[in-house]
Specification:
This protein is mainly β. Helix content is 3%, strand content 45%. A hairpin with a 3-residue loop joins strand 9 and strand 10 (138-145).
Length: 310
């Protein structure tokens, strides 16, 4: 973790420069970057600005950190922690110069006739109004986008249950149904150790990869295992099959034998899609949730991370 922090400093960005809140409960502590259009840690347009988690510690075990080599607040993946991304709404109906919606960011301006690109940082036409209310063990972060929605994410720690909890409420204040999928990218960095045979990713169902894992990993029943340590510029990416329509299938464990610790990720909603992406510095089981909110209604969902020692 110290190496990663120094790397961040080397690119001219000190963690202390950004609006943030520290929350704690017993052995669980977290540092949360707060959204800010002028000097927030993340100002690009791929990921939800609410609840960018710089650090989550259980006892002395770190689970997140800076996994990328170059920091730029306007770069699509200059982000850390179990961050979330909503699919674009209304992009195909928008003409170049018109706006489309990405929840947790705001109204974005379409550039050209090409399909939406998550790796492009679009102009933010209207980012709404952000408010953050920190407390000892949680922080409430709310975005109000007039004529569209009120979105609140509460980041909470529960030391008794060893949990980091993300509670979401999306209220539709507009005239159109809001329907999309949101996924959690995770960016797990357990102990800052490289992706390799010490790491396993376990699901509650027999799992099938749809892409070639290139001899770097393989699926063994309910587990994904690495066959060797990944080196720089190597990556794994595949959609995964085998899950059903019950929320009980949204139950993912990532364990590192060398760090002697693990994390269990669960939700109160079923998976709508499941993807796995990994490079040397991070492993990311990307779990998707389908979101549909009629005008005047609200949608609630929870994602929780339980930390444990092995």
């Amino acid at each position: 973790m110290r190496i990663l922090l120094l790397l961040s400093l080397a690119f001219g960005a000190s963690a202390a420069d950004f609006p943030q809140a520290e929350i704690a409960s017993g052995p669980v502590r977290a540092r949360v970057y707060l959204p800010n259009a002028e000097n927030g840690y993340y100002r690009a347009t791929r990921f939800d600005w609410a609840g960018v988690i710089a650090s989550a510690l259980y006892k002395d075990h770190e689970f997140f950190g800076q996994w990328f080599p170059r920091y730029d607040p306007k770069l699509h993946d200059s982000i850390v922690g179990p961050v979330e991304s909503f699919g674009a709404i209304g992009y195909n109906q928008a003409k170049p110069g018109d706006t489309f919606l990405r929840i947790g960011v705001g109204l974005l301006r379409r550039i050209d006739e090409r399909p939406v690109n998550d790796f492009t940082t679009y102009e933010i036409a209207d980012g709404g109004r952000w408010t953050s209310v920190p407390a000892a063990d949680h922080v409430d972060i709310t975005q109000e986008l007039n004529g569209w929605y009120v979105y609140t994410k509460t980041v909470r720690v529960d030391g008794g249950k060893r949990l980091l909890i993300l509670d979401h409420v999306l209220k539709n204040t507009g005239k159109e149904t809001l329907e999309t999928d949101v996924f959690n990218h995770d960016f797990f960095m357990i102990g800052g150790l490289p992706s390799g045979p010490d790491i396993t990713v376990t699901f509650p169902f027999d799992t099938r990869a749809t892409a070639n894992l290139k001899g770097l990993a393989e699926m063994r029943g309910k587990q994904m295992v690495y066959l060797r340590e990944l080196v720089r510029n190597e990556s794994i990416m595949t959609d995964l099959e085998g899950y059903g329509q019950s929320a009980s299938d949204y139950d993912i464990r990532v364990e590192n034998k060398q760090a002697k610790t693990g994390v269990r990720q669960t939700s109160d909603h079923p998976l709508s899609k499941l993807r796995l992406w990994s490079i040397r510095t991070t492993v990311c089981p990307e779990a998707y949730t389908h979101v549909k909110v009629e005008p005047g209604k609200e949608f609630r969902w929870r994602v929780a991370f339980e930390f444990y020692e092995m």
